[in-house]
Amino acid sequence: MTAAEALVAATARLRAAGVPDPARDARVLLAHAAQVDAARVTLIAPEDIAPDIAERYENLVALRAVRVPVSHLIGEREFYGRRFKVSADVLDPRPESETLIEAALSQDFERVLDLGTGSGCLLVTLLSERMRATGVGVDLSEEACLQASANAVLNLVADRVRIVQGDWFDPIEGRFDLIVANPPYLAAFEMDDVAPELRDHEPRMALTDEGDGLSAYREIAAQAGGYLTAEGRVLCEIGWMQADDVRAIFEAEGWGDLLVLPDLDGRDRVIVARNPA
């Protein structure tokens, strides 16, 4: 069997399994199995596929067919042009979160706090883009803290990052110019409707608060002001139908100058709040 024939067969299998964009995933997995760059897959397409590569590819495709995320199979995900190591212990970095990055970078900052840091993709990206900034990431999960620390090393910002384990603001001291968060915002009842990649293979605590999906925003709105500098900002990713509810939560805590930003699909994605002090 040639690589091209294997690719066609894998694409058909993934399509039958209901995998979104099966051709892309088949291509990425073949590149990983063959240990070549994805851009070179067309170059090896006419060649016979070696037995060891064929076996690896078969295993990868079989796992993807039962909806194991591609990032978990290859061990990494790209975010804002950088590589991040990922696993089942952290939420997969997603393109829509880049909306928060763009908003954060629109103004200067020197000290960043990332609540529920997970893979560290937000914090590490922001520090990579602002070479003089420092930051703290906090997560309740010890495994997530280890993953974030590894990604800080991978992206050469470890000397400007401190990762701590804890519950939201509990282990945090000092003040920050910028507080960012991508909290669990799915309501418990929504979990039955999310894609299998999320529901079955990503940490549930990073997806839902087991309530109405708004508890993290209540915590942040109530406490963040005490950790911000006078001109500091809070940026939180939100569910695309949560803007009115999250805005009301922040307004009830006295926050002003609230702004809701859309992602590239035009859906509400980020709320920006300034220090109410």
Account of the protein in words:
With 277 residues, the protein is α/β, with parallel strands linked by helices. It has two domains: 3-66; 88-274, Vaccinia Virus protein VP39 (Rossmann fold). It is 38% helix and 19% strand. It contains eleven helices and nine strands. It has helices at 3-16, 22-34, 41-44, 51-65, 70-74, 98-105, 121-129, 142-154, 196-201, 215-223, 243-252; strands at residues 76-79, 82-85, 111-115, 134-139, 161-165, 176-181, 228-237, 256-262, 268-274. Strands 5-4-3-6-7-9-8 form a seven-stranded mixed sheet, sandwiched between helices. A two-stranded antiparallel ribbon has the order 1-2. The longest helix is centred in the N-terminal third of the chain and has 15 residues, at 51-65. The protein starts with a helix and ends with a strand. 38% of the residues are buried.
Broad CATH class of the largest domain: Alpha Beta
Number of strands: 9
Order of SSEs = HHHHHEEHEHEHEEHHEHEE
Global shape: elongated
How would you sum up the major sheet? Answer: 7 strands, mixed
* Mean pLDDT over all positions: 93
In terms of quaternary structure, what is this?
single chain
> What is the total domain count?
2
CATH topology of the largest domain: Rossmann fold
The rounded Rg comes to 20 Å
Given the structure, what is the number of helices? 11
Q: Which structural class should the secondary elements be placed in? A: alpha/beta
Distance between the termini: 67 Å
Corresponding CATH superfamily of the largest domain? Vaccinia Virus protein VP39
State the helical fraction.
Answer: 25-40%
CATH architecture group name of the largest domain: 3-Layer(aba) Sandwich
Which spans have pLDDT < 50 for at least 5 consecutive residues? none
Query: Approximately what portion of the residues adopt beta-strand conformation?
Result: 15-25%
Widest β-sheet, arrangement of strands = 5-4-3-6-7-9-8
